[in-house]
Amino acid sequence: MAEPALRLRGPARLTLGAALTIYVGAAGWLVWRTSILEAYSDMYDWVARWRQLQADGDIGRYLWSPHNFHHLVWTFAVLDLDIRAFGAKSYLFLAVGVACLALVAAMLAWAGAAAAGRGLRLVGGGVAAALCLMGCNVLDATADINTTYVHALVFAVAAILLAEAPGERSRLRRAAALACAAAAGLGSAAGLAVWPALLFSAWRRGDRGASLAVVVAGGGFSLLYLVGQAPGAGAAASVGTGLAGHLSEAGALVLNYLGLPWGRALPALGWLFGLVILAISLAALGFKGRRGADWSERAAVGLIVFSLTTALMAGAARTGVIAPSLVPMRYSVFLEPLHVGLWLLALPYVRSASARRPQAFEAAVVAVSVVLLAHQAVMAAYAVRTADANLRFIADFRNGLRYPQMQPIVYSDIKLIVAPADWMKREGFYQRELRPDPPPQRISGPGISASSPGP
Questions:
Q1: Calpha distance 433→455 (Å, rounded)
Q2: What is the pTM of this model?
Q3: How crowded is the C-beta side of 428, counted as CA atoms within 13 Å?
Q4: Which sign, positive or negative, has the C-alpha torsion 163, 298, 285, 137?
Q5: CB–CB of 409/394 below 8 Å?
Q6: What is the rounded distance in angstroms from the CA atom of residue 267 to the CA atom of residue 270?
Q7: 118 vs 199: CA distance, rounded Å
Q8: Helices (H), 34-166
Q9: pLDDT digit string, tens, across residues 220-275
């Protein structure tokens, strides 16, 4: 029996379309409103690295040497081109960061629309795009030091979709998926999480050839990633706690990570948000993506495994460094695949509901449209507040002020960057913003930052 034709009718379709237009428009406005183009934090280390390149000409060392364990090949390539071709204004960082976030949203929206099927493509693709373009995620595209995350994410998502999308799995497509997986690791070490995701998906669908290829390519690349690493690089340890305490803290960090972004609004309940997400995700991995499953189901499983692996990596590397309840919001972007993966798994049930009770479904679509707008408004307010707090610290440093609260944002030891900052000012490196400085504010604590462990 043929499936009944589905169609989202006039008012509901118009409401959802208008809501998504405003939602995406708000994300675009946030690109300008939250942009930070001046140097701060890791950017000082990156520019020092570029200056060393000018002295010794060692492009291999410049691109490959690890920075806090990460091989930031794409970041350093962008930095070099931004300085040489665009006058060290951060415009290229901003353009690449926004393009990466937009591509992730577009790929996952395509997957959502395809999984939703005829008549519900706007619902499937629109909600997937909304999950990617939350205001808090825009912050990872508009500050140079955060763009490493979207550099990794865009290739990881591409790798998973290339491996699972409908159509023949030709050798060329498999090779492209493996190449994208390797490229993800060149954006950030978190990109290494794509290898377990590809392996799990290949194993669940019973593809031994693909499983072997992932093991060989992923294992080789992971070993290569260790080249140049200092002993103990990336390791973190809790001080004053035993193994049980360390594992407990790591577990709490993982749960709070999985609770992003909503857990940051209620830090005391962040672990509970994460526990719910973890339980749902593990259930999805246990029952979905088996041999013979639809491609969207298999892709969803891979996306979920990627995000869960990044959570485990954060727990292993950041325990003892950040308080579990204050997991930085910048990590939220790595949960986009998990959120969209769960949405892909929900879409068959959504489609069934729309066929059984079309009027109730359309009313639900209108309600979801309102919720999306309200959610984006809250996220936009958070993003603006965070970016303004960070830029205020940067502006104060630029204007010669010095106080302890600026250190977590501007640099961990202000004394170390006074001379580099003076040199950059003389050279005109990273001295402009797209927007005016936010008004001065009374400083009474560490501030609010998406790029530091603070709230």
A1: 24
A2: 0.92
A3: 7
A4: positive
A5: yes
A6: 5
A7: 31
A8: 42-56, 59-64, 73-86, 91-116, 121-132, 135-142, 147-164
A9: 999 999 887 776 554 455 445 577 777 889 999 999 999 999 988 888 889 999 99
